[in-house]
Amino acid sequence: xxxxxxxxxxxxxxxxxxxxxxxxxxxxxxxxxxxxxxxxxxxxxxxxxxxxxxxxxxxxxxxxxxxxxxxxxxxxxxxxxxxxxxxxxxxxxxxxxxxxxxxxxxxxxxxxxxxxxxxxxxxxxxxxxxxxxxxxxxxxxxxxxxxxxxxxxxxxxxxxxxxxxxxxxxxxxxxxxxxxxxxxxxxxxxxxxxxxxxxxxxxxxxxxxxxxxxxxxxxxxxxxxxxxxxxxxxxxxxxxxx
Length: 242
Ligand code: COA
Ligand code: AMP
Prior knowledge:
By secondary structure, the chain is of the alpha/beta class. It has helices at 26-34, 70-83, 88-100, 141-150, 155-174, 225-234; strands at 2-10, 13-22, 42-49, 53-58, 62-66, 113-116, 136-138, 178-182, 191-195, 199-204, 215-220, 236-241. The strands form 3 sheets. The protein has a 6-stranded mixed beta sheet, sandwiched between helices. Strands 2-1-3 form a 3-stranded antiparallel beta sheet, with helices on one face. A hairpin with a 2-residue loop joins strand 1 (2-10) and strand 2. The radius of gyration is 17 Å and the shape is globular. The chain binds coenzyme A (COA) and adenosine monophosphate.
């Protein structure tokens, strides 16, 4: 199979990223990914042969909750994280981290925070970069799109949901105990918490409508960090169904 990855930037700032794991239609997919960013001054497309691909039968189950305000949404996210075994104080710490911006130099990171579920210590080697979940895709994207539409997911949410659900599913597969996420896109206030026992729980609103700050926190066991990092970055994973 091929791993096809696209990233685009404008004035030195990352503006778009997308990837596919495919057997055929290489040229069609390159064209499709190249059309994804609206504005950019540099785009990099990487094609890489992948020898071994792991399979997951089902993505995490999806649940959706809407709240009146951010405080109630955060309260619910903390409750769900504690159902995964995360201490309440660390769930709160993760929310505060994303609220302020997880990059110690201010603003967003280029990947996720790795947080020790025991001590709350950050375990990423580089706190401006973090860890990225890559080499993950759906076996049949068209089928997944159709099934999500049939479940009432509106077009505005569809592609983001597909991408984020794929990432969250791979994270659990790799041994991440729980995840907290909201986007850095100012127009997108739906975030999620995810974990093996709670599934993929969409929660709105996780931030103010105008905020350009977001991020991901992966809760992990310290002793598993090296194995999890290798899995998140290197293992190619295809997800079969919902
Ligand atoms: N955010 C910010 N910067 C990013 C970035 C991101 N998501 N992805 C790449 N970059 C920039 C960084 O400067 C990075 O340098 P760094 O490693 O020092 O941070 C540089 O580009 C090179 O990154 P690299 O990891 O080599 O890129 P890649 O070619 O492997 O592509 C992406 C990775 C873009 C595909 C991945 O980061 C991404 O965005 N994935 C999300 C796609 C998705 O939703 N997947 C689910 C599919 S169903
Ligand atoms: P997004 O949902 O794309 O707005 O991303 C929100 C945040 O998640 C970004 O600010 C990054 O810190 C982080 N992030 C983006 N892509 C990845 C990835 N592939 N894996 C892990 N973290 C990511």
